[in-house]
Write a structure and sequence with these properties.
- The structure is a single chain.
- This protein is an alpha/beta fold.
- It is built from four helices and five strands; from the N terminus they run βαβαβαβαβ.
- The strands form two sheets. It has a three-stranded parallel beta sheet, with helices on both faces.
- The longest helix is centred in the middle third of the chain and has 16 residues, at 60-75.
- The model has no long low-confidence stretch (mean pLDDT 83).
Length: 152
């Protein structure tokens, strides 16, 4: 990227989005009753109708693997065209290995993919998005794609 003369790259933005939501959920009205909280605490206060959760056959990495592979297939993007993989989550796997490292199994022999996990309650996804934007605006960006992956 050449921004030495105040010129920013053209056509920078979001190419596509993919979302994978577990099919199992709890109705928030039922949860309000079960939890003995005031009516509307979750439905009105948080604006939630349902809260999805993983089955015993799913976890944050499987959801992220599915989202990344669907995104790559749908956009017909080559894994070798990805320069950064940013994961935002509030759910670390076991705190010893990053989700990004586990997603790299999709990238075959692509060893030059920058990235990081941002794990921080409700802010992990926002932090990953801000990191993605900062990377695109920096001299580190080499005009190749980045995947921003918001885990659960």
């Amino acid at each position: 990227m050449d921004n030495t003369q105040g010129k920013w790259p053209d056509h920078v933005g979001i190419l596509a989005l993919e979302i994978v939501v577990p099919s199992t959920y709890v109705n928030q009205t039922d949860l309000e009753v079960h939890g003995g909280v005031s009516k509307g605490k979750y439905t009105i206060g948080l604006g939630q109708e349902r809260m999805a959760f993983c089955s015993d056959c799913e976890y944050v990495v499987s959801l992220c693997l599915t989202a990344v592979s669907l995104l790559m297939q749908r956009t017909r993007t080559s894994y070798s065209d990805i320069g950064r993989l940013e994961v935002g989550t509030e759910t670390p796997v076991d705190k010893s290995k990053s989700i990004k490292s586990m997603l790299m199994c999709l990238f075959d022999n692509c060893n030059n993919v920058e990235g990081v996990d941002s794990t921080n309650a409700c802010y992990g996804g926002t932090a990953a998005l801000f990191n993605s934007i900062a990377w695109l605006e920096s001299s580190a960006w080499d005009c190749i794609y980045q995947i921003y992956n918001k885990g659960i």
